[in-house]
Amino acid sequence: MTPTITAFERSPDRGKGLARDMRVRWALEEVGQPYKVRLVSFGAMKEPAHRALHPFGQIPTYEEGDLALFESGAIVFHIAERHAGLLPDGANARARAITWMFAALNTVEPPILDLQTTRFLEGDKTWYKQRLPVVEDRIRDRLGELSGRLGDGDWLDGAFSAGDLILVAVLLRLKASGILDEYPNLSAYVARGEARPAFRRAFDAQLAVFTGIPPTG
Ligand code: GTB
Question: By alpha-carbon position, which residue is closest to atom 29 of ligand 1?
Fold first, then answer.
């Protein structure tokens, strides 16, 4: 059965691939699972029909037969469990890859989200100029630790996994800030993720929603 996901009808990032449908699209592309996309407006997201799928009135959601999921991490995990290619076969390696998914979402993403909240919602506050470097330094703390762990490895723990997919998607949100450039091995890690053919296909598909021009190839 072909799953259907939801994505922004008009993404505020104008097709930069920063909204969270991107990680779901990428996972589906990695495992070779075709999918459909239902585009939703900001208004429709808050209507009862969408809230029945997503209690918080957000994207992405995932529907497959009588299964409906929300939360990008849970959706990627579901895809990784149902298909080969995103989780290793060995039980311990699999558990470690899942650990990295949680670490990306629970430990690395929060300070990055904090930066975005600070920039977009608190720019007019009197304390903004004092707060911004504090928030940026919290990100640097995490990236320093992550950079040390990755070292000169291509991926977090052997072959590319769902843990890498989520972490690259999370780190991508930092690209415009320039902070990622301070950690050359992390920049190279993100670039490796972006160079994957499945990433490119997913990126082009979400960009096409913004441009209205269907992806080629
Ligand atoms: N924890 C949930 C998950 O991982 O699925 C969070 C889902 C979420 O935040 N969804 C956002 C949403 O629906 C879109 S991705 N927001 C609408 C609302 O809450 O009303 C977040 C996002 C939005 C915009 C950009 N951007 O423009 O760069 C980047 C990321």
Answer: 19
Q: CATH no. for residue 144?
A: 1.20.1050.10
Q: H helices of the chain, where?
A: 21-31, 42-45, 48-51, 72-82, 91-103, 109-121, 128-150, 162-172, 184-195, 197-211
- Is the domain of 105 the same as that of 176? yes
Residue ID of nearest Cα to ligand 1 atom 17: 58
Q: What is the pLDDT of residues 66-88, one digit of tens each?
A: 999 999 999 999 999 999 999 99
Location of structure tokens 């991926």: 155
Co-location of 101 and 188 in the same domain? yes
Name the residue with the closest Cα to ligand 1, atom 2.
71
Ligand 1 atom closest to the Cα of residue 45 is 20
